[in-house]
Write a sequence for this structure.
């Protein structure tokens, strides 16, 4: 029971990170119907921004942790969002209206480019990060096992909840959110009704990149290591999460992320750690066979 | 649309202030992008991270973006019309005799290549690599180009073929010619096993499931130590022989080596040339096979399915079976290529079957123009030779590779030779 509880906590933490990345995939897919293959790389860049920002603060001698966290969060979100905006502008906007596979290939190219760009500039070696937040609560103590909820896990979950709340408000209440939903339903009609479609799509990429940057920062603090290759597998799993939840559905992305995180944590705890990635994909295949539109997705109506 | 034409037609200097502004904006964005990743570099200083600054790089980068954008803007008009003209010229090529002539000349050149004076070991080796990719491209073209199924995990079948050949040859001592069909068959079975549950899914779901499948195969290859020897891979895979005659300086007693039978001096190049001709034969057979298939009812059903699935169903085509056949045939061709890869390298490990390989093969198909056989050759030549030419910039290879993929897609979103005409039609093509 205690062991189960511990895995539940670990899984939820991991799932929060996947969910935040998955939101970026699902938003972009919802609005322009393409797999933004470079999104995993955006998350990786966010992690690198966080490492750099923490290191700069360390050199400057900032030791007050809450201040450091806020500064790092703002810095990595802003700079990563700039990357998200540029990626759309350079690689996807010229391909609007092109055949469906063209932006996908361009996205794969962008992903390869960014991976090597970061590797060349920051080095191929793993960057170690000293833990910023130490310690934790002990929830349960049996003679054989104690259940820990570390402060960093609390931080990740709390921040995720806050972000989701802000994000939901943004989509539901603001003008941008309305424009975004309108573009998602019908881009041409939205344009006719005075929505600036290009700007809305750009902002979608900016928001997605900002969420991925937060995920990158969390992972940096949680695992304490970052390298240029982390984006690939995380991106793949986050996309799996988005599909699992029903692509295009925002709550679905978060739910899918949590499920993938839980599956991974439990599978590696109870079965084998080597095959945890296989487990996540197998779940995906099963869900797609029995519920092709994902858990919360709307079934797609095929029209002639 | 009208404004683009106006812009292209206007004399370049008349819009100078606007272009200057655009260039300044681009430079400002570049500055924001460059400061954290280019300007600052975290370095490991005995366990803790320190920071290094490289503001000179930032300056150079931002200046380059500014000049590039300004020059690009000024040249845009000229370039746009040139590109349109070039673009208009390209799709005209595949029609008629000209393209056929090209193909015949290309095949003639490919056959003659190893015997030409400049063809040293390096050139023939490079040709072999190129032909492996051409063959993989033709195999994937069946799935993506003809049947319109987006497969992001094609490398899985390549890996299955390679491991099947290696394991069969190592454990059962079977010859290349027996293993080759077995490897293809096994890959096809894998294709069917994967395809059966997932082919009901629509395009993008299929893409992600195949991508996941590719990763799964790789993870299994890494972790199933007892069968695959894990990350260390399989080595000393038997080399192919010339119909039973080995390419060895000193063959075992009672065995005649290739050079002895033909009375030649022993040369290690014999094997390389043989491998080259072998893959050339395999690739040409693949091409012939696919070209024939396209004219069969099955191939026509693939193309019809790509265009409109609902109409196909209405006409009594079973989409699942048709898709499954495309998947299986594509997988089989990938398996053949994999078996050849294993015997050529003599060593395989999961390292050779990463996602980047799938992406490269898919890029070959899409860059070449989906469904175009000659396009695949052009794109494969481009993607294989580009990194070789840029060998001095070895560390920038993949960077340039990625950037080239983006630029070609922007330049020609339908691929170099993209056409969607059906292979067979009633009446004369317009």
């Amino acid at each position: 029971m205690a062991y189960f509880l511990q895995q539940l906590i670990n899984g939820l933490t991991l799932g929060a990170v996947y969910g935040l990345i998955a939101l970026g995939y699902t938003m972009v897919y919802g609005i322009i119907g393409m797999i933004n293959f470079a999104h995993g790389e955006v998350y990786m860049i966010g992690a690198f921004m966080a490492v750099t920002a923490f290191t700069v603060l360390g050199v400057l001698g900032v030791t007050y942790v809450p201040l450091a966290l806020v500064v790092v969060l703002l810095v990595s979100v802003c700079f990563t969002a700039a990357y998200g905006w540029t990626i759309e502008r350079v690689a996807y906007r010229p391909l609007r209206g092109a055949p469906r596979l063209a932006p996908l290939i361009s996205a794969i190219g962008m992903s390869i480019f960014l991976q090597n760009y970061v590797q060349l500039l920051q080095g191929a070696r793993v960057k170690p990060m000293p833990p910023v937040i130490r310690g934790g609560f002990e929830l349960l103590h049996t003679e054989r096992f104690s259940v820990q909820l570390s402060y960093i896990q609390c931080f990740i979950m709390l921040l995720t909840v806050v972000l989701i709340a802000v994000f939901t408000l943004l989509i539901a209440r603001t003008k941008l959110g309305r424009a975004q939903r309108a573009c998602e339903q019908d881009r041409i009609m939205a344009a006719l009704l005075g929505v600036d479609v290009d700007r809305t799509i750009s902002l979608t990429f900016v928001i997605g990149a900002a969420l991925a940057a937060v995920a990158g920062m969390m992972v940096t603090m949680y695992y304490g290591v970052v390298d240029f290759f982390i984006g690939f597998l995380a991106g793949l799993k986050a996309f799996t999460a988005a599909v699992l939840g029903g692509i295009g559905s925002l709550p679905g992305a978060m739910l899918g992320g949590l499920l993938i995180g839980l599956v991974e944590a439990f599978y590696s705890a109870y079965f084998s750690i080597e095959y945890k990635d296989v487990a996540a994909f197998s779940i995906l295949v099963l869900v797609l066979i029995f519920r092709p539109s994902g858990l919360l997705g709307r079934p797609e109506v095929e029209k002639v | 649309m009208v404004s683009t034409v106006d812009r292209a037609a206007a004399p370049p200097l008349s819009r100078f202030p606007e272009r200057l502004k655009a260039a300044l904006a681009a430079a400002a964005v570049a500055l924001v992008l460059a400061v954290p990743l280019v300007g600052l570099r975290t370095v490991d200083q005995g366990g803790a991270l320190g920071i290094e600054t490289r503001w000179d790089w930032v300056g150079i980068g931002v200046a380059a973006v500014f000049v590039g954008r300004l020059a690009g803007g000024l040249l845009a008009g000229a370039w746009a019309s040139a590109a349109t003209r070039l673009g208009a010229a390209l799709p005209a090529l595949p029609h008629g005799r000209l393209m056929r002539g090209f193909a015949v000349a290309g095949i003639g050149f490919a056959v003659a290549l190893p015997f030409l004076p400049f063809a040293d070991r390096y050139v023939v080796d490079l040709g072999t690599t190129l032909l492996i990719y051409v063959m993989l491209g033709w195999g994937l073209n069946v799935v993506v180009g003809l049947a319109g199924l987006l497969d992001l995990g094609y490398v899985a079948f390549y890996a299955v073929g390679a491991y099947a050949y290696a394991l069969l040859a190592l454990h059962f001592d079977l010859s290349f010619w027996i293993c080759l069909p077995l490897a293809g068959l096994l890959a096809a079975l894998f294709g069917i096993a994967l395809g059966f549950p997932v082919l009901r899914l629509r395009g993008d779901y299929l893409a992600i499931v195949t991508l996941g499948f590719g990763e799964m195969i790789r993870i299994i290859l890494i972790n199933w130590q007892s069968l695959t020897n894990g990350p260390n891979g399989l080595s000393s895979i038997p080399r192919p022989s010339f119909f039973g005659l080995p390419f060895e300086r000193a063959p075992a007693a009672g065995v005649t080596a290739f050079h002895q039978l033909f009375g030649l001096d022993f040369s290690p190049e014999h094997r390389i040339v043989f491998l080259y001709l072998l893959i050339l034969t395999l690739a040409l057979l693949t091409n012939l096979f696919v070209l024939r298939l396209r004219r069969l009812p099955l191939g026509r059903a693939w193309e019809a399915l790509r265009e409109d699935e609902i109409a196909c169903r209405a006409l009594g085509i079973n989409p699942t079976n048709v898709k499954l056949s495309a998947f299986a045939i594509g997988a089989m061709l990938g398996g053949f290529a994999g078996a050849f890869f294993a015997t050529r390298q003599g060593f395989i490990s999961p390292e050779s079957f990463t996602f980047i390989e799938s992406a490269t093969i898919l890029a070959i198909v899409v860059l070449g123009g989906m469904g175009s056989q000659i396009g695949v050759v052009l794109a494969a030549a481009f993607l294989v030779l580009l990194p070789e030419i840029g060998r001095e910039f070895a560390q920038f290879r993949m960077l340039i590779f990625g950037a080239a993929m983006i630029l070609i897609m922007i330049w020609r979103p339908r691929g170099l030779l993209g056409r969607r005409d059906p292979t067979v039609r009633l009446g004369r093509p317009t």
User: Anything to note?
Assistant: Residues 17-231 of chain A form one domain. Chain A has a mean pLDDT of 87.
